[in-house]
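Hi W.,

Here's what went into the run:
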Amino acid sequence: GAGVSQSPSNKVTEKGKDVELRCDPISGHTALYWYRQRLGQGLEFLIYFQGNSAPDKSGLPSDRFSAERTGESVSTLTIQRTQQEDSAVYLCASSLRSSAHYEQYFGPGTRLTVT
Amino acid sequence: AQSVTQLDSHVSVSEGTPVLLRCNYSSSYSPSLFWYVQHPNKGLQLLLKYTSAATLVKGINGFEAEFKKSETSFHLTKPSAHMSDAAEYFCVVSDSGNQFYFGTGTSLTVIP
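Here's what came out:
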């Protein structure tokens, strides 16, 4: 079946512009996670959604970052007034439930470059 | 607070020799622990996970890991390295299953 998909695969933007990244989770997965992976570093948790519950935004690095998810479907991560330090690969993952017993399935990521 | 420390940023082994990738964790509660692999230009894939059952966990592609609470370790091993094992490996800890904390990764090189 279809896995997690993300778009765009690559995005180059000028400093100060807003960007929107999209994630399509696996159908039926109630949990969705966003991570950031800077060059040569591990994944940094940003935010997660579980069903219709309020999202856990504790990992968002600043108020320029926001994310939305409609029900148990598509999620968008928005970065306003981008800065060069926002350059990274942004990864999305989904799982059946937000529990360590359920595997997270990762998308291929969106590589964001801020010039 | 939860965190993981991957003790080696790079490991190089010869094909056919054992692999050892080290991971130590910090967790306030009984953690769940995972190893993920990331091949170049490919997505992250789960190798194995420990969620409070057997302490020796077997994963895909011949990898296994042992949870040692007294040492707060979860090292990844494989008896014989294959060229296709060359990749980036991440150790991950979760207390609640709501947040997952990744280590900085270990790059494995396999020498023919």
